[in-house]
Amino acid sequence: MGLFSLINLLxxxxxxxxxxxxxxxxxxxxGKNFGDHLYNELISAGIRTLxxxxxxxxxxxxxxxxxxxxxxxxxxVFSKDYASSTKCxxxxxxxxxxxxxxxxxxxPVFYNVDPSEVSEQKGLFEEAFAxxxxxxxxxxxxxxxxxxxxxxxxxxxGMVLQQDRYESKFIESIVKEIADKLxxxxxxxxxxSVPLSSALRPPSYFFGLLREWRRSFFQTPSLFLFFxxxxxxxxxxxxx
Length: 240
Hints:
This protein has 240 residues and is of the alpha/beta class. 57% of the residues lie in helices and 10% in strands. It is built from 11 helices and 5 strands. It has helices spanning 3-15, 27-30, 34-44, 61-69, 86-102, 115-119, 124-135, 140-154, 167-181, 203-218, 221-239, and strands at 19-24, 49-51, 71-78, 105-110, 159-160. It is globular, with a radius of gyration of 21 Å.
C-alpha cells in the first residue's frame, strides 16, 4: 500500500462516527414499551444505538451532546409527553444543532401524535409549553429554542404510526429505514444457538469490529507511530 493511500485510509478511519444512532424519546410514556422495543430491535439488527436511559449519559449534558455529535443518525420519537420533558427538549436542541453543523441525519417518528400537532404545538404540546413558559419565565430564550427545534424537526420527512397498524410492523419499518440510510444489508439471521459464519454476518458487524480496532489502535500512540514510521521507511528506497 502506498504512503498516500495509507494516509487516506487512516483519515477515513478517524473521520468515521463511533455510533450509528442516537435515540431520543420520552421515558415517561413510552420508555417501557415502544421506546424500549425500538431500541432492542435496532441493537438486534447490529445498529449501534445510544439512548439516555439512566446510564452513562444520564443527567450529563456534555456527554449527551457528545453522544449526539458522535452519531450518524438521530431518531426522535415524538409521543404525547415528549414536549413535557425538558430533558427531551434539550436533547432535541442539540440534535438539530448537530444537523446544521455536522450533517447529522434526523428521522422524526410520530407515535400516536399528528405531525401538525407537533409542528404547530397544539393540544398536549401547547399545554406543555404553557407550563414551561411559567416555570422558565426567566429563561425564555431557552423555551424559544425548544419551540424552534420542535417545529424544525417535525417539519422533516418522517414516519407516522397509523392507528390500524401493528407496532411491531412499524418498528420493523423504522429499523429497515435506518439500515437503508446506513447502507446496511440485513440478511435473515439464523437462531442464536447457531453460530454465524463470516459470510452471513451483516456489514454492521464488521463496521463494529473496525470501530473497536480503530479505537484501540489510536489510543495506543506507540503502536500507531511504529506502524506509520514502518510505512514511511518502506517507501524510502523507492524515493532514492
